[in-house]
Amino acid sequence: MILKGNTLKVINVVGARPNFMKMAPIIEAMNEQRERFQHILVHTGQHYDERMSKSFFVDLGMPKPDIDLEVGSGSHAEQTARIMVEFEKVCLRELPDLVIVVGDVNSTMACTITAKKLGIQVAHVEAGLRSRDMTMPEEINRLCTDVLCDYLFTTDHFANENLAREGVSMEKIHFVGNVMIDTLLKHKELARGMGILEGWGLKPGEFATMTLHRPSNVDDAATFRGILDALSGVAKVIPIIFPVHPRTRKMVKRFGLGGYFSTADSPQGLWMTDPLGYLEFLHLNMHAKMVITDSGGLQEETTVLGVPCITLRENTERPITCEVGTNFIAGNDGVAILRYTSMVLNGEMPRGTVPERWDGRAAERIVEILGGFDLSRRAAWSGH
Ligand code: UD1
């Protein structure tokens, strides 16, 4: 394709499940300005199972990736290195003006480093989040990504403050809101009408949902067992629906923990399912009594849905969800888990409010800002 003089060539990068809902509204907003943006979608293939990847493209109405790097799983070094090697080839072939990365997964960091070393401008969506926990691979990914990026799009005042404290120049920081919430607000009504609860014999407010996949919770047998002991107690009072991440399923098998889960066809006790699609899971979460999780995105989604969230981590990079939202940090200690879940069951959790600019327009703001891209900052090769 021949680019017109003021058309920006952009590579949008996705790799893992939580990236898809963040990128979908950005693509949509760019499609509104086809004169200004020519964009291609690169999927690194970090997540590749049908239920971890393709089903999200269908649910979110996203275009198929133009390029799939098919890197798959591996150790952090292997996965990061494979992404870098393959992404460099794409950059050299496509010669983009700008690369956009989202979130904090290995794909985010790997593509940022690769692009910057080629002199390409990079924009990071969801910049500035910090857990200050260097045992989290995501924290390392966030730090490396943010220090390199040219555009830092933030979700809240904590992120702005973190970046400012790290010495980032203010002109790079843009407080735009939350693209994940753009996607949630767009799909909420569609998800509400899905009728999954009836199919499973569940009633609104009479079940909980849970996700668990952090290495700190599931890679150590004693820790994982302690969490399941506590949650088995909770599941006697209220069924807990647990769509299981592939890494967690592997650990359940390895540690012989299958006995904790119900195998009946209808949800009861601690009930394991395959990973669910975006709309199905949103449907469940909006009707749940509470969500128990170690995910980052769910802390944000529950804040907007007004559903209590019990976070099974010692810290969060999303403190805004505790400051104004419905999120409570329980760690992975059984006593704390039981204390917080009992508070919810007893109706003692306060209701939260929605953070500033989590209003469904974050992607629109991002695209407007990128529309002002200074063409003289194009990589030297582009020769436009
Ligand atoms: C990754 C992200 C994490 C994010 C999570 C969301 C990093 C460092 N971690 O963690 O921040 O919260 O995605 O899901 O980038 N697997 C499959 N099929 C798949 C994908 C993975 O079976 O489609 C299994 C493989 O055994 C793999 C393991 O899950 O080794 C872990 O996958 P990986 O992408 O390395 O990390 P996640 O735990 O998914």
Tags for this model:
Rossmann fold; six-stranded parallel beta sheet; 384 residues; binds uridine-diphosphate-N-acetylglucosamine; alpha/beta; seven-stranded parallel beta sheet; globular
Give the helices and strands as they follow along the chain.
Answer: EHEHEHEHEHEHEHHEHHEHEHEHEHEHH
User: At the third CATH level, what is the topology name of the largest domain?
Assistant: Rossmann fold
Which small compounds were modeled alongside the protein?
uridine-diphosphate-N-acetylglucosamine
Decide which structural class fits the backbone. Answer: alpha/beta
C-alpha-based Rg, rounded: 21 Å
Order of strands, main sheet, comes to: 3-2-1-4-5-6-7
Number of domains: 2
Q: What is the arithmetic mean of pLDDT? A: 95
**Name of the level-1 CATH class of the largest domain:** Alpha Beta
What spatial form do the alpha-carbon principal axes imply?
globular
Task: Tell me about the largest β-sheet.
Answer: 7 strands, parallel
Poorly predicted spans: none
Distance between the termini: 13 Å
Q: Report the CATH architecture of the largest domain.
A: 3-Layer(aba) Sandwich
The tally of helices reads: 16
Fraction in helix: 40-55%
The CATH superfamily of the largest domain turns out to be: Glycogen Phosphorylase B
